[in-house]
């Protein structure tokens, strides 16, 4: 029987490619057609209910039961025009995926009448059986139930799977005692907290600013692989990454894939998932090839952070689903393939005011420049003061492969701001101070607004090796992993910014109270923050050895692994910070810490098992089979009277195969022992560290010998699809 791999290769080469693409349709013609946005709400709701919905979105207030009934009924009417039969509360539990449980509108009344029904109660709150979602111990000690509650700030939408259509109501997910059990609740809280702190600071500059919303534009990287080939790789299916595989002769060294023409089959897939995303209101804007072969990226127009997070999660879902229709699979893992780049998800972040100002956009006048400078410097201070939390917010088993692997930002958090702004900050630092009075006019006239946009558009002033870079009118957090929910890093970023701004206001007010002029007070505090936060700024090569040394000298943390990075969430300082702004209670932080450690352990446990299984059942058998062929050959040559030189090569290969088989067998055994040892540990942190230090080290050791075998064994015997096939055949 042929191996799964050869069958897959045969199927791939024999089957026609689906490259059909819908003739060009105008996106505006169907954008958000499956979203109950305010336009549709206006159409389906009474004036009263519409106003109540708008006000609840704007003021983040609850909707009362009576209005809830009206809105639910309108939602149902709208959904029925689209042949929807079921609805679900859609939420983001801490598993990292989304959850839904579908209920039908269909119901039987007491007298046996069959009806389609959807009322306010069903819209506003549900109690899904939550006992199998991770709670980090919260539910075990308190109450078994959790409930989902409607989040009106993210509009309901319809998901189409085949012919089925389901109305999805975005909700938050909390325990019965009120602790958050999802990614969205803390994110929403952090946006509220940041809004208050930012509005307070904006008031120094513009009394008309009454609302500030954090904005997010993500850039999603991913790989696409033929599904039949992938199905012959149990590691890809089970862990999302290849645990074995020798680098192909040609990798990404030619850099010919980056921004190159998109392969036809992938293009058809992209068009397909983009159309589905547009219908769901995801405002996709760009698509292109990435650096590694078979790697791609897409990015939307930025939105308010809450919506942007939902849209990213939806997109990952849609991509995964639509890929199946094209017999492709999407890999969202941070490091699906060794030796070539992994995938990230840059988080572009800023803040927008109700007056239409981007607070990280350089202003048009000296006064708005000062506002820009205040927000710019406060971001630097926030990152400086809480670099450990930012690092923790992106920690995961998958992302550990990327951070610091000289292809992605290092695990050291630093900020790149470009030459021009470095000069500006140096100026401020030098010129302001005791003699600021005489200089203030000159200072305030800095033509920041004229110079930055041009400079930033010039790519030479961009630094790709920085984890946190200013890119002209926003900061780009580049260290986020491709499979991550952006909610986690965004929650941290919003919170630390809120902390910096709150302190800023206190400091400025103190000077004003002492009789200082407002502008001077502002400049003095800005100057103080520049001095205090300077060590987080770095313009050089973030991948270099020299930077790691320099960062250490500066006292910047460089935590390379997840179990240790997560410590930052449970320090006294972190607990105080998050409690202060009502984002997480101590209990919630500890629960989340526990969940993330468990998650890490489970991921490594699964990988270790797959490595052991594959080594024994996929790698050693073909190696032995091929060795037997060699032995037969050697024996035959000997029998015929050939001298040793005739089979020296065969002997050598057979010998090498034996050596690799021997090491693999021994290392797998040792790895299993190490796992058993780690499993004895009852403390999650200790257990995670053991997995990280004692179990994981075998992964690469075993891989080394497996990959050597791949180069020795007859191609026809090799069971696992090879890198060159996964990455280059479509
Ligand atoms: P580049 O990475 O080359 O700078 P863009 O400038 O197009 O690419 O921006 C990348 C992402 O940043 C896009 O998703 C875009 O919507 C987003 N973005 C632009 N401005 C903002 C902003 N003010 N707030 C948040 N995201 C933004
Ligand atoms: Mg970018």
Q: What does this protein structure show overall?
A:
With 730 residues, the protein is of the alpha+beta class. The chain contains 27 helices and 17 strands. The strands form 3 sheets. Strands 9, 10, 11, 12, 13, 14, 15, 16 and 17 form a 9-stranded mixed sheet that branches. The longest helix has 54 residues. The two termini are 24 Å apart. Bound molecules: adenosine-5'-diphosphate and magnesium ion. The site of adenosine-5'-diphosphate (ADP) has 15 residues, from strand 9, strand 11 and strand 14.
Architecture blueprint of SSEs:
Layout: H1 4-14, H2 38-44, H3 47-59, H4 65-80, E1 86-90, E2 103-104, E3 106-108, E4 114-116, H5 120-124, E5 125-126, H6 138-141, E6 146-150, E7 157-161, E8 164-175, H7 184-202, E9 212-226, H8 227-231, H9 234-239, H10 264-279, E10 284-289, E11 295-300, E12 303-304, H11 305-325, E13 328-331, E14 345-353, H12 366-385, H13 387-393, H14 397-400, E15 415-416, H15 419-431, H16 436-444, H17 448-457, E16 468-470, E17 475-477, H18 487-513, H19 518-533, H20 545-554, H21 562-565, H22 572-580, H23 586-639, H24 648-679, H25 684-695, H26 697-712, H27 723-728
Parallel strand pairs: 1-8, 15-16
Antiparallel strand pairs: 1-2, 3-4, 5-6, 6-8, 7-8, 9-11, 9-12, 9-13, 9-14, 10-11, 14-17, 16-17
Helix pairs in contact: 3-4, 7-18, 10-11, 12-18, 12-19, 18-19, 23-24, 23-25, 23-26, 24-25, 24-26
Magnesium ion binds at residues 219, 346, 476.
């Amino acid at each position: 029987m042929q191996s799964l791999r050869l069958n897959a290769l045969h199927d791939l080469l024999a089957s026609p490619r689906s490259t059909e693409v819908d003739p060009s349709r105008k996106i505006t013609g169907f954008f958000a057609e499956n979203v109950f946005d305010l336009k549709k709400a206006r159409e389906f709701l009474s004036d009263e209910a519409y106003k109540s919905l708008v006000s609840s979105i704007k003021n983040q207030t609850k909707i009362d039961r009576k209005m809830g009934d009206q809105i639910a009924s309108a939602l149902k009417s709208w959904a029925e025009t689209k042949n929807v039969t079921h609805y679900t509360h859609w939420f983001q539990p801490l598993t990292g995926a989304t959850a839904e449980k579908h209920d039908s509108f269909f119901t039987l009344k007491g007298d046996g009448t069959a009806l389609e029904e959807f009322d306010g109660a069903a819209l506003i709150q549900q109690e899904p059986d939550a006992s199998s979602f991770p709670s980090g111990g919260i539910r075990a000690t308190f109450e078994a139930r959790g409930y989902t509650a409607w989040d009106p700030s993210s509009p309901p939408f319809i998901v189409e799977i085949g012919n089925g259509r389901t109305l999805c109501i975005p909700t938050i997910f909390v325990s019965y005692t009120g602790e958050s059990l999802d990614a969205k609740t803390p994110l929403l809280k952090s946006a509220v907290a940041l809004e208050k702190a930012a509005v307070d600071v904006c008031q120094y500059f513009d009394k008309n600013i009454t609302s500030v919303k954090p904005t997010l534009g993500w850039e999603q990287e991913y790989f696409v692989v033929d599904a039949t080939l992938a199905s012959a790789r149990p590691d890809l299916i089970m862990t999302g990454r290849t645990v074995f595989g020798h680098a192909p002769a040609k990798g990404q060294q030619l850099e010919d894939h980056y921004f190159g023409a998109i392969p036809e089959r992938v293009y058809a897939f992209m068009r397909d998932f983009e159309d589905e995303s547009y219908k769901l209101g995801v405002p996709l804007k760009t698509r292109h090839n990435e650096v590694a072969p078979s790697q791609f990226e897409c990015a939307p127009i930025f939105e308010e952070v809450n919506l942007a997070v939902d849209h990213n999660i939806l997109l990952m879902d849609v991509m995964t689903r639509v890929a199946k229709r094209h017999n492709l699979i999407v890999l969202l893992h941070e490091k699906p393939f060794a030796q070539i780049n992994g995938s990230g998800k840059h988080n572009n972040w800023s803040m927008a005011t109700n007056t239409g100002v981007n607070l990280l956009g350089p202003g048009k006048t000296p006064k708005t420049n000062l506002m820009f400078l205040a927000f710019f410097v406060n971001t630097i201070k926030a990152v400086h003061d809480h670099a450990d939390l930012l690092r923790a917010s992106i920690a995961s088993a998958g992302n550990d492969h990327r951070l610091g692997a000289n292809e992605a930002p290092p695990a050291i958090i630093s900020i790149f701001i470009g030459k021009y702004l470095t000069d500006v900050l140096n100026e401020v630092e030098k010129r302001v101070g005791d003699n600021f009075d005489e200089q203030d006019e000159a200072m305030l006239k800095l033509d920041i607004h004229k110079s930055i946009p041009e400079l930033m558009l010039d790519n030479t002033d961009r630094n790709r090796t920085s984890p946190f870079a200013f890119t002209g009118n926003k900061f780009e957090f580049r260290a986020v992993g491709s499979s991550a929910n952006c909610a986690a890093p965004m929650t941290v970023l919003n919170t630390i910014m809120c902390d910096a701004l709150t302190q800023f206001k206190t400091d400025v007010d103190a000077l004003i109270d002492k009789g200082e002029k407002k502008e001077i007070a502002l400049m003095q505090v800005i100057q103080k923050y520049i001095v205090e936060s300077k060590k987080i700024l770095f313009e050089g090569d973030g991948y270099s050895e020299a930077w790691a040394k320099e960062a250490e000298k500066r006292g910047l943390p460089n935590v390379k692994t997840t179990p240790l990075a997560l410590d930052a969430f449970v320090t006294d300082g972190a607990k105080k910070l998050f409690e202060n702004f009502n984002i997480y209670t101590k209990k919630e932080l500890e629960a989340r810490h526990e969940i993330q450690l468990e998650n890490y352990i489970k991921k490594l446990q699964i990988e270790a098992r797959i490595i052991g299984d594959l080594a024994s059942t996929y790698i050693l058998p073909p190696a032995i089979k091929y060795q037997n062929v060699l032995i037969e050959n050697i024996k035959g040559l000997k029998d015929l009277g050939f001298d040793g030189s005739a089979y020296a090569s065969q002997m050598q290969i057979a010998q090498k195969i034996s050596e690799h088989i021997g090491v693999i067998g021994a290392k797998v055994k040792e790895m299993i022992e190490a796992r058993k040892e780690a499993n004895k540990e009852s403390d999650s942190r200790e257990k995670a560290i053991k997995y990280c230090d004692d179990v994981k080290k075998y992964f690469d050791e075993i891989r080394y010998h497996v990959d050597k075998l791949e180069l020795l064994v007859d191609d026809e015997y090799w069971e696992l699809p090879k890198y060159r096939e996964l990455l280059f055949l479509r």
